Structure prediction request, 162 residues.
Amino acid sequence: MARWTDAEARLFARLSGEPSGIFPYLVALTVSLVAFLGVEFERQLFGTPAYFPVYVSIIFALRYGGRGPAWLSAFLGTLAVLWFLPPLDSLAVDIDGIPRLLNNVAAMVFLILLWPRQSFGDLGYRLSAIQRRAIASIRRQKSSSPSSIGRLSIASRSRISP
Prediction:
């Protein structure tokens, strides 16, 4: 059996939904920046900020990179919430804004802690271990004797049909 080169192994790890290194954190940083701009746009458009883009950025960071990038996105989301609480455009918080801040932070923490541990690779783009073993078994069988696959398919059809 041929062994994989390092480049092939890295490519498979990236395609199989197992991002590594700093890239997921850069994605979380970028998505958090887009969320901040989305909250600012909502504030300019409607007069009051809605923090929905912050939660979307956390969910995206969870799905793509896991809990580490999600914590980074939650921290940046907390800064965004602080920025838009009165007094506006500063990281200082008024006494009346503390419950709103705590509510948003608690929602972010619960979102991260209660989210199932999966990434994009677990969404069905990747085959399960059983499916990979079955495909490998069929390929081995096919390469050893092509006529046995025909007998296998006829036998399986005879079991299925009454």
User: Anything to note?
Assistant: The CA atoms of residues 114 and 144 lie 48 Å apart. Residues 119-125 have pLDDT under 50 and may be disordered. Residues 6-123 form one domain. Helices lie at 6-15, 23-46, 52-65, 67-84, 98-114, 129-144, 146-160.
